[in-house]
Design a protein that fits this description.
The chain is mainly alpha-helical. It is built from nine helices and three strands; from the N terminus they run βααββααααααα. The longest helix has 21 residues.
Amino acid sequence: MKCMVEAPRRPTMQEIQARRNSCLPEAALNKRLGMSLPNLGDSRPITLQTSLTKIILYDPILRSPPESMRVFKLPEFPVSLSLLSIQRYYNELILQLGKAIFCVPPENSALLARLCYLRGFINTMCFRRLEALSDFQNLYKTDTAIFPTQLVTWLVDSLHREERLLADRRPELRRLILKVSQITHTLALF
């Protein structure tokens, strides 16, 4: 039997303008979430139609009450796209992520893990390999489910000789390098 999935569509610009002008809580929620996420406030059911019956499935994520959400505000992107402006932007982003990591309470390990992941990724993009490995070490201690094994393996393999010597002097990085090499060795056996 053929099934047709009826998925919610993206709103038109007129619908977006109408939501903005209305004073419903849904409009306020969508305005906070931004224009890039227009379907998040919709709570329309997903329907599956068959030739005999119509089945309505509700998405449990949309029905559940929203948990407390923390938002990390990115620094303003520079108007000038010069190399110096972009470097300053990334430096400011890494600095703000460091402040956010410092302010996270210890019981919120999921948020801490996500911030460490983000700062580690930005450090990787800026070729700050040791700082990135340090962030991924902190991530490994808090949440192994999102640990980027392949990225860390690539980082370890791309370390220059001087960086490798510095990493070997830091016990936490030495342990991380050892764990990653064990993981890749185990995966190579399969």
